[in-house]
């Protein structure tokens, strides 16, 4: 059973690491093991806490980008009424891009998420996947320079709207890597965006837009348990969610500014070394 310290620690950790490209689930599995916290990753209370804190993060994203989401909703309605995407209607296009990009992770998640996380959720396996996440981020930085540095771009959302549906689908498959604990949803989506020709700023926005429907869908499947079943530490989970929302706001505020002028390299280096060090320590 979760205690107050574990719940608040995991809530703050989740809010920060969900949006940073360093894997929130990976850190939620690794750090309790490395620090000796009394957290059982297979305990149902731990799973419910992660879902609740994910939901808090999604709510923060909706609040932060509410104007964009509202524009996407209106654009989607316009496209449905017209039975086509109006020419030059970038938010209608982005809405459909998100729908297409959500399909791979949503479909694969429904089929395999439980089996993958049961099979690979050991701290040693997670450490290796965190290392792999670092390699992915570094590789995306190396490869994207071949075809994006000289490109001409407008504002970030206009840039996103130029994506083809095939590229959006590819980014969606990249996001599905987060089904392996240790790979970051944000990081994989960012890498996919960079490889599709987006700048860091546009890739970051698209990654955040894309995270929201997946998180809400996962919460919708799991949170009814918290409401209908007894025995869960409801107060601790709610407090962790509040902390998670606060740290998520700090993260999204920082990252949207950071990626206007910076790259994934520092996060890549961190994941490579953190993954290797964790693997060595946990294997002893």
Question: Which short descriptors sum up this protein?
Answer:
single chain, 77% helix, globular, 0% strand, mainly alpha
* Rg computed from alpha carbons, rounded to a whole number of angstroms: 19 Å
How is the main sheet built? Answer: none
Q: Please provide the count of β strands.
A: 0
The helical percent reads over 70%
What's the N-to-C terminus distance? 27 Å
| pLDDT averaged over residues | 87
Can you tell me about this structure?
The protein is an all-alpha fold and 284 residues long. It contains twelve helices and no strands. Helix 3 (44-64) packs across helix 10 (200-228) and helix 5 crosses helix 10 (200-228). The two termini are 27 Å apart. 48% of the residues are buried.
């Amino acid at each position: 059973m979760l205690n107050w310290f574990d719940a608040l620690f995991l809530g703050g950790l989740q809010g920060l690491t969900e949006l940073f490209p360093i894997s929130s689930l990976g850190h939620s599995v690794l750090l309790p093991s490395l620090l000796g916290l009394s957290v059982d990753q297979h305990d149902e209370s731990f799973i419910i806490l992660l879902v609740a804190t994910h939901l808090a993060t999604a709510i923060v994203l909706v609040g932060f980008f509410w104007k964009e989401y509202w524009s996407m909703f209106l654009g989607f309605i316009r496209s449905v009424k017209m039975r086509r995407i109006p020419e030059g209607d970038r938010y209608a296009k982005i809405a459909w891009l998100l729908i297409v990009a959500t399909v791979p992770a949503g479909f694969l998640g429904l089929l395999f998420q439980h089996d993958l996380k049961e099979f690979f959720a050991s701290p040693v396996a997670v450490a290796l996947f965190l290392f792999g996440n670092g390699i992915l981020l570094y590789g995306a930085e190396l490869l994207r320079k071949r075809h994006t540095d000289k490109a001409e771009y407008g504002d970030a959302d206009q840039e996103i709207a130029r994506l083809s549906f095939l590229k959006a689908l590819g980014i969606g498959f990249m996001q599905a890597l987060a089904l392996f604990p240790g790979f970051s949803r944000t990081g994989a989506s960012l890498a996919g965006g960079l490889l599709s020709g987006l700048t860091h700023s546009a890739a970051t926005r698209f990654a955040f837009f894309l995270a929201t429907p997946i998180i809400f869908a996962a919460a919708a499947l799991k949170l009814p348990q918290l409401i209908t079943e007894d025995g869960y530490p409801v107060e601790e989970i709610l407090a962790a969610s509040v902390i998670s929302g606060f740290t998520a706001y700090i993260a999204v505020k920082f990252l949207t500014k950071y990626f206007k002028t910076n790259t994934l390299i520092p996060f890549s280096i961190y994941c490579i070394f953190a993954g290797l060090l964790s693997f060595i320590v946990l294997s002893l």
